[in-house]
Each structure stands twice: as C-alpha cells, then as structure tokens.
Amino acid sequence: MQQHPHISRRRTGRLAGLTAALAAVVGLSTLTGPGAHAADNPYERGPAPTESSIEALRGPYAVSQTSVSRLAVTGFGGGTIYYPTTTADGTFGAIAVSPGYTALESSISWLGPRLASQGFVVFTIDTNTTLDQPDSRGDQLLAALDYLTQRSSVRNRVDSGRLGVMGHSMGGGGSLEAAKDRPSLQAAIPLTPWNLDKTWPEVRTPTLIFGADGDTIAPVSSHAEPFYSNLPSSLDRAYLELNNATHFTPNSSNTTIAKYSISWLKRFIDNDTRYEQFLCPLPRPSLTIEESRGNCPHTS
Ligand code: 9J3
Ligand code: ZN
Predict the structure, then answer these.
(1) Which key words tag this protein in UniProt (predicted)?
(2) 144, 124 in Cβ contact below 8 A?
(3) pLDDT tens by residue, 50-78
(4) Which residue out of 126, 132, 159, 215 is catalytically annotated?
(5) Residue 64 CB-density burial (10 A; 0-12 exposed, 13-18 middle, 19+ buried)
(6) Cα separation of 75 and 83, whole Å?
(7) Catalytic annotation on 215?
(8) I want to staple 178 with a disulfide (CB 3.0 to 4.6 A). Which of 42, 134, 138, 243 is the partner?
(9) Which helix (H) or strand (E) holds 93?
(10) Looking at 117, 169, 175, 261, which residue is catalytic?
C-alpha cells in the first residue's frame, strides 16, 4: 500500500505527531486494503454480509470437496468435506453435520456447499449404521470433528478451536448430545431434532434449534420446543419454527434454514458481530417463520 505522497518523505516535529494521530484513528485499515478488519476480529472471514448475501445459493468463497471413505475412519461412517478452495484467508471454523434415522449423508448434503461457500469447512457425514440413536450420533459428530482437525487432508485449513455441530432429526438430537459432551463447541444447530431426552441443562454451547410446524415425526411440542426451553436460560439460544414445513424440510435446500444457520455459525464460531443484525431482534412471524424465541442481545 502506497503512503500518502505529502507525508511520506519526512516525519518530524508537528507533522510526525499528526501522522501518528491519524494512523491511530484509522488503525491499519488503510494499510491492509478494503474489507480487511483482521485487527478487530482475527476470526472474521469474507465481506460484510447483506440480507441477499446470506440468502444466496452460494456465498463468496469457491468451494472444493473431498470424499472420506468409511473404511478410512473409525467412530463414524465417513462423508464429504466441503471447504473454501483458497488458502489466502488463513484457517476457517468447521462443523460436522449428521443425517437422521435411516438416512444417508445425501439427505443433508445441500448444507455442505451452501455453508462452506460462506467460509466454513463443512463435514457432512454418514453414521456407522443408519439406525444409530442420538447419543451415538453425538459421539460420531465429535469423532468426525476429531478426524477433520487431526487427520484429514484439510486439517491445516481448520481452526481446531472453532468447531460446531448440526444434524437432522436424530442427528439434531445428536447435536445436543455432542454439545453436552464437549462444551468447547462454539455452536450447535439441531434441525427438526428428535430425542427421548428432553432436558439439556448441561449445554454451554450457543444453540439454534429449528422446528417445523407440521412435523408429525418429531412434533415440536414434544421435541424442539422442550429442548429449547430446557437449555439454560443464561445460554445464548434461539428457537425458529419453520412455517408450512414438515419433518423433512431440512432435507432439501431451504433459504430460511441457510440464512439463520449462516448467521448463527458466523456469530458464534467466528465471533462475527456483523451477523448479529440478522439474529437480533428475532425474526418476526412470516410466510416462512411460524414462531421465534431467543435471548437478545446475545451475551457471549
Ligand atoms: O431421525 C429421525 O428422523 C427421528 C425420527 C424417528 O423416526 O424416530 C422414530 C424412532
Ligand atoms: Zn438431559
């Protein structure tokens, strides 16, 4: 970056003081280029978001992917890692995503490129067996994150201190189990979650739960809503009930799920407060949102 021509040659006396004061006011931003705010938040990635950028089918990062054979891992069933292609932006936060009962990775694969293109490493997994229960799915999400950060081909692209979990149905119930087991997780997003355990006082991970108003397999009245209510009231937590939706709405590309998931992951995995505007105040009921609950402003 060029220096200003009128102050570049000599810095003495009053001019030196003025230069120093000016540099202090503008910080390093004029020296590191447009959009660079690394000095403010070392975990911030990508340009400032807009409503349309978080609703878009793809975010600003080109995405690569690599398959992980179930034969090459232990503790889960393999999967696909989606990651920003660039190595110019340092490391990224990462999430693992579990499918539901009887389902394969393909049932949640749309989240891979959708979230990775916003600046995350996303591991959509298969489970050991499609009949595994939520507690096992939680353990498998953690095994997948451990593989991702310790052994995978993209391990050097991942910040092992900024991890999260997502999952559908029993995988959503598994996301709560994973957070309960590993409080260092930075974000959890259960999608139309199912679990026999309704109480989550142990969770310390900021958690966004999606319910579906027409879910007859994991009715919100006995799953998503009590899960939300039985998280600690001191926790950063939210509940969004999708309008005109079913248990299987999270199995295909969905802009409401994407935009609030991106915002939650950015806010709590990247500490990126530029996304707070999409979470607080809570979204009002609309054609896509039946109901919303949560604490605002956030406390962590
Ligand atoms: O993962 C799921 O779809 C859980 C819903 C379910 O089928 O539970 C019945 C045991
Ligand atoms: Zn419990």
Answers:
(1) Hydrolase, Signal
(2) no
(3) 999 999 999 999 999 999 999 999 999 99
(4) 215
(5) middle
(6) 22
(7) yes
(8) 138
(9) strand 92-98
(10) 169
